[in-house]
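Question thread 4412

I'm putting together a teaching handout and wanted feedback from people who do this every day. The idea is simple: show students a protein as raw sequence, then show them the structure tokens that encode its fold, then repeat with a second protein so they can compare. Below is the first pair exactly as I plan to print it.
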Amino acid sequence: MKKIIAAFDGLKFSESTRNYAIHLAKQTSAHLVGVFLEDFTYTSYKIYDLISSNRGSVGVERKKLDKKDVKLRGAAIQNFENACRNAGLECTIHKDRNVAIRELLHESIYADLLIIDSRETLTHYSEKTPTGFIRDLLTHVQCPVLVVPHLYKPIDKIVLLYDGEPSSVHAIKMFSYMLGSFKEYPMEVLSVNSPAKSLDLQDNKLMKEFMKRHFPKSGYTVIRGSPEVEIINYLKGEKDTSLVVLGAYRRGLVSRWFRPSMADSLMSGLKLPLFIAHNK
């Protein structure tokens, strides 16, 4: 039995993460763990809220707000447990109370798949996607990650991004091993070649031989142009029920500074679930 972990901010509970996690756990007969990140440095209120309050001393007001946070986090856990129970799933709850990113990265060592909302920040503030928290997570995570949009839609098609590099094949392997139950879904391998090249897949024979063993019903689409432009434009034509598989997030800091990761571009430009896995 595989292990899926779903990461939550109990103060801003993501029903989308919950729904994707339950759907995939049922699909794969996996054990589901709800990881509730209760970072001791993070509360629902700001220090300014305490200072500006006219309702009593700062200490008294802080205790009231802390109790409110405890209730919010408890309600989020109860929501998750009830949803799992209603779906006929057993689940485990982890309450991680230290620094959130450090705790979640440690959890990922012992997981087969991590599911998280693309908007998670574990701060008071909203950020553009990909958020700083998601960037840090994807750079250092120890298992494949499914980054999901804020609104849940049942998955009914898989798009596999392939560029001839080992990292893209590795991501497809990880998807096959973890979510092989999707092999009966419509499946498309999408590749982008430079304008000077033909419309053949890179390593055409080897790739199709590999895909025949993992996803024999796959179709193939090869287009010309810049991958950063053409992939986004192509996927904008997909329904929001498609899931995209890709690798190659982990590059050096300097490289990412000048050329954002494809995952970053997809998260900011689309609202599709992304299955991301990279070579170490």
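The second pair follows. I'd like the answer to focus on this one:
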Amino acid sequence: MKKIFLVLFIYAGLNVVNAQQSDSLMIKKIFATALSDSTAYKNLEYLCTKIGGRLCGSPQAAKAVEWAKKVLQQMQLDSVYLQKVMVHHWDRGEKETASIVSVKFGSKDVTICALGESVGTPANGISAQVVEVKSLEEVKKLGKEKIAGKIVFFNRAMDPTDYNTFEAYGGAVDQRGHGAAEAAKYGAIGVIVRTMTLDDNNIPHTGIMRYDSNGTKIPAAAICTKDANLLSDWLKKDADLQFHLKMNCKMLPEVESYNVVGEIKGSESPKEIIVVGGHLDSWDICQGAHDDGAGLMHSIEMMRLIKLMKIVPKHTIRIVLFMDEETYQRGAKKYAATVREKNEKHIAAIESDEGAFTPVGFSIESSPDTVAMISKWRNLLEPYGIYSFKKQESGVDIHYLKGLGIPRIGLEIDSQLYFDYHHSVADSFDKINNRQMQLGSAAVASLVYLIDKYGIK
């Protein structure tokens, strides 16, 4: 009997070793295939340079939907379809202008851009004294006596000492998102916000802002970091200087748009789904190469690699290219609602929305047991620089699947340069390195391969 158990033990051990060797060879092949190919790079070039900025509701966003549908259809997936959503349509209008006017220093034009969904100014713009603050709480403390009739200047920088740039962004972005709503409560006539970047340059970065539903809507713009520093310096020496702001943005009626969905049906468990996605929309002032053209390519390449390498998945592999991530995430909400209505079973949801720089791992929103299970694959992926497997937030679009017991996983990228480009004119195709981007594509494809083969407990 002991000999039988020993033989079985050795046999089981050999099976484990053989499986590891097989997985290692497959992942090596996935990375080799991705790194020797430029299809995704050419797709991204077309998306960025022929279609350009894809703000939801815009003609460019509609073109992106048709382009993405065509790309997936050409891959001969088992099904490709559109998922209808209604989205906001905000138009920036003619380029914004601003200037500082000081008795002591003279007049200087400064570089700004309207924040997403801001109202415009009157035709001749607005001019007022400036109150510099570092937080929403400071606005409350100053109150109407100091704020009314002024333009509030939020000048809290992202923390350069924070190694995690997404945490640095999170520590400063509340002033962009809610600064106008807070300042309006105390009578401010406009808001300017220091650009959300760690770089010191003349490039302003846009991004979404929110008004209180019953509050006064006042114009809100981002000012580049160099001019933010200049304005702060001048204010210290001339508290009575004036800031002139002219913006031409407006809201238009909502329009119909779509998520783009494609599937490879599972050979054994077709009703169990692994979904992977990125978002189709970008801000209007940029080509959206890193945010989130790269995430689209990572997702599309995952499907293309499966087809190209003739991998036959056991579970259904689904790609969703979400619309409207940058404003109200209506595409993500629609997808999650459909999953609930159809009672679909998802075994994992994966999102890429951190750019095209070198991938370093995966962030996992799930139970400690699931995190531990996925982390066991580190030895297979570490040779390709994928070493970080940790429990933390994954992605905005797959967030809405929360509560369904679905492990949600985000591709984690080396983000040190990401906020140099994020939401700005600098986010263009020429900033993309094909090799770095394809490392991300291969990382996502490898994770899908492993989840499909072993499942997630």
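Top answer:
Good format. For the second protein you could add a caption like this: The chain has 13 helices and 16 strands. The longest helix spans residues 2-35.
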